[in-house]
Amino acid sequence: MNTIHLEFPATRRLTKRAHVGVVGSGDLEILLEPSEEPFAKLTVRTGTTGFDQTWQNVLERFFEENDVAANIKINDFGATPGVVKLRLAQALEVSQNDVEQLEN
Amino acid sequence: MTLNNLKTSLVELDARSRAKALLDEGTFRELLGPFEQLESPHLEAQGIVPQSDDGVIVARGYIKGEPAVIISIEGDFQGGGIGEVSGAKIAGALELALRDNKNGIPVRPIFIFDTGGVRLQEANYGLLSIAEIGSAIIELRNYTPVVGLIPGKIGSFGGMSITAGLFSKLIMTREARLALNGPEVIEQEAGLEEFDSHNRQKVWQTIGGEQRVATGLADMLVEDDIPSMKEAIYDVFDKPASEKPRSTHVARYQTLLRATNPSYKMHPIEMRNLWKQIAEGKPVQQASTFHEPENGDSTYSRGHRWFEALAGTTSKHPDVQSILCADKEIAGGRARFIAVIPNPNGRFPRARNGEVGLEEGWAIAQCVREAVGEDRHGEKRAIVAIVDVPSQAYGFREELLGIHLSCAAAVDAYATARQAGHPVISLIVGKAISGAFLAHGMQANRILALNDETVNVHVMSKQSAARITRRSIEELEKATKKVPAMAYDIHSFATLGALFGIIAGVDANAPSKEDSYNVMERIHEAIRDVKSGSTGLEYRLTRTDGRQASILVRKRLEEQW
């Protein structure tokens, strides 16, 4: 198991926390909580080793496009970069939406 | 957009959404949700990424306007396997539902299965949890129907199917499967000719929802459609059944087993017809009788030797010769001793080496229930399970005829005896493995074990466990150093707190007179200890610090209840 810590500058505050996904094959779980600090702080735990650079690239890109101050935990079970991006987008949507979250 | 005939699938939802979907709209309130991050403390040490809710969702809410608790297993996380935290969430929620119902506060318990059984990476924690879950269900059933739904995808397997056997009502879809040992495991243990796991048609014909309902092993068949499932659940609570739970119907299932001929593999349709006759109370023919071995037993097992040493006799069950059962006057009262031994001439070929098979589970239940019945108005005799069981029986016939229920019957009987005030003691003299140990030993008030390196407690052989968790045996052994729940030796098991004591200084293999005297002393000590305590299993949680997560989960659940 590999744990990766990443941090990106951020300015926009979120109001709601969000939980999406499952630590199931090819999928991942995301816990997103609004933060008072001007950062998106990430802790990624992944069962797949050797992809630190890929995580760095995928997440950097995502948080360039989405400026959110949040503490984010990712529990990964071999999700592809595409799935990671989708789940992150879903988490953001849930955290900005007042509508009851629907999963899967 | 809604179409009139479009079904709204429950199977396609994750565990949390399943729970939400079944509760009255807008009433879902999750306990110990993902942000509490009560995850498994045992997975990271093994290089496995944990999940924030440990794969079990517990939620309060309402079912048709009445307070309810719903427990839903996430099959996509570690195959829905039961570990310490997930197990404690289930057991804790059921214990709280029991407490409320006992105090006159109605809580409707609903359970959504999607599980492969014990989580192999937390092995013996899973076993302990499943014993606690079963104990809570058996008591809870006295106050309210306990409803299980097996919607499908994984279905229900392993020790959790023994639990399923205890439910008041089981609802299944055609897609769902219910079995103790999965077809893959049986194929691996007994060969392709026993059960071809790739033959999907055969698999569903044998353990699928339709067959299970048609043969009385489940109660209602529903479509994978949320409104239909809700209706089925309402139905159970609207008309509480007068019928006793199926795991208590010893005579009925013994009739079924006697009417089957194990010399060939019965077709599932034949089983349906047979069951129909029995359920309607029509007489059935006894298919084959037991033949006493001509040359006597070829094996004289350790369990057999200890039974003779302690009970002073070899008294076999009249029909099931692999079960020894005898009463003996001991200091301070009477005790009934029960053991499972090999029988090379047993009717069921997959249960001849001391396994707990179909006949064994029901015969144990019979022996225990007989004592409970006889002592109803008097002094409750002690019941001593002598444990030397290599496994449950792996076979096609076993699954077709419901070995999960046979094991549940034994669990039910022991727990019922304990809850009625019988001191129930188990003495592990050899192997105490998996479903067999759940059925024979795990429901005891107190567990004693001999100090011997061949005295083992675990859920699966090292070879199989390594294969399934995709590790080498060396890696597996390394993991057991970090997680004692995965180890096989009795001292590691003792660190989990379930043992009353380890008995040293006796010859485990060949007990002398003095050895049996010493062991009997310890049994007396255990009985005295039971008499001064409660009839529950909570004693196991606090004996060592091996169950900290189990205690924490229960405490937090209670705060949020």
Please write out the topology.
The complex is a heterodimer of chains A (104) and B (561).
Chain A lengths: L1 E8 L8 E4 L5 E8 L4 E8 L5 H14 L4 E8 L3 H16 L8
Helix pairs in contact in A: 1-2
Chain B lengths: L14 H8 L6 E3 L24 E8 L2 E8 L10 H19 L5 E5 L10 H18 L6 E4 L8 H6 L4 E4 L10 H8 L9 H8 L1 H6 L5 E2 L4 H13 L11 H10 L8 H12 L22 H10 L11 E8 L2 E8 L17 H17 L7 E8 L6 H5 L2 H18 L3 E10 H6 L6 E5 L5 E3 L3 H7 L4 H10 L7 H5 L4 E5 L9 H19 L16 H13 L1
Parallel strand pairs in B: 3-4, 4-5, 5-6, 6-7, 9-10, 10-11, 11-12, 11-13, 12-14
Antiparallel strand pairs in B: 1-2, 2-3, 8-9
Number of helices of chain B: 20
How many DSSP helices of chain A? 2
Low-confidence stretches of chain A: 99-104
**Assembly level:** heterodimer
Task: Characterize the structure shown.
The complex is a heterodimer of chains A (104) and B (561). Chain A has 104 residues and is of the alpha+beta class. Chain A contains two helices and five strands. Chain A has helices spanning 52-65, 81-96, and strands at 2-9, 18-21, 27-34, 39-46, 70-77. Chain A has a five-stranded mixed β-sheet with strand order 1-4-5-3-2, covered by helices on one side. The N and C termini of chain A lie far apart (26 Å). By secondary structure, chain B is of the alpha/beta class. Helix content of chain B is 39%, strand content 14%. Chain B has 20 helices and 14 strands. Chain B starts with 14 loop residues before the first helix and ends with a helix. Chain A binds chain B through residues 1, 17, 19, 22-25, 27, 29, 31, 33, 45-47, 73, 75-77, 102-104, and chain B through 12-14, 16-17, 33-35, 37, 44, 47-52, 74, 76-78.
What is this structure, in a nutshell?
The complex is a heterodimer of chains A (104) and B (561). Chain A is built from two helices and five strands. With 104 residues, chain A is an alpha+beta fold.
